[in-house]
Amino acid sequence: MHFISETLEDYVAAHSENEPALLAALNKETHQKILQPRMLSGHFQGRVLSILSKLIRPKTILEIGTYTGYAALCLAEGLVENGTLDTIDINEELFDFQRKYFDQSEWKDQIHQHLGNALEIIPTLNKKFDLVFIDADKENYINYFQMIVPLMNKGGVILSDNVLWSGKILETVKANDKSTKILLEYNQLLKDDPRVETVLLPIRDGLTVSRVL
User: Fold this and answer.
1) Minimal CA–CA distance to 134: which of 165, 161, 95, 166?
2) Domains of the chain, earliest start first
3) d(CA 95, CA 154)
4) What SS3 string covers 145-184?
5) Which of 7, 19, 87, 211 has the CA that lies 20 to 30 A from 192?
6) Residue 112, beta-bridge partner list
7) Are 102 and 64 in contact (CB under 8 A)?
8) How many CB atoms lie within 10 A of CB 165?
9) Order of strands, sheet of 84-89, starting from the edge strand that comes earlier in the sequence
10) What pLDDT, in 10s, does the model give residues 56-90?
C-alpha cells in the first residue's frame, strides 16, 4: 500500500540525499536475485535510517532482521569510531550475500553477523545499546521490545519497522491474522509504556522512533 502517491514518493526521494553507490548495487542485486525484495528498506527509508543514526552517533547498534544488509549499512553510517553493529537473522541462505556487501564497506570490521533466533542470541551479546532497529518477524515484536528495553543506554533509540503493516492496522483483523493483532498491541504498548517516548512516522510502511527515558 502506498500511503502517499507514487509521484510524491518519487519527489521526496529525489529531494533527499542520493543513494550511495554500494547501496544502489545492493538494491539492484536484491531485486534481481532475492525473494521478496519489497522487504528492502530502499533509498528513501535508508537515508532516514542513516540520518537518524548520524544524529544519535551510536557506539553500539543492534539490528534484528538483516535481510540483505541494506539497513545495516545505512545505520552503520552513524557509528562512532570503533563502534559496533550486531545484526541478527535466521535465514542462513542470505549470510554470504550480506557479507559480500559488508566487506565492501568501510564498516566491514565493525559489522558482526549472527545467525539464529534473536531471542536466544541477544542475551549472549553482553552489551548495552544506543540504537536498535527491529525489522524481523512481527509476531515477536513485543518479545523483542521487552528484552531490549533493559539493555538500552539512557537516551537510546529503538526503531521499529512495518508498524503500519500495509494499512492492515486500520482494517478488521481476521481471526487467523496474528501478525496484525500483535502489531496493534505493539503500537499501543509503545504509546503507553512509561519507559519510552514514541512518535510513529508514516514513512513507507510505518517507522516508529522510541527514545528510552
Assistant:
1) 161
2) 6-212 (3.40.50.150)
3) 32
4) HHHHHHHEEEEEEEEEECCCHHHHHHCCCCCCCHHHHHHH
5) 87
6) 86
7) no
8) 20
9) 111-115, 84-89, 60-64, 129-134, 152-161, 207-212, 196-201
10) 999 999 999 999 999 999 999 999 999 999 999 99
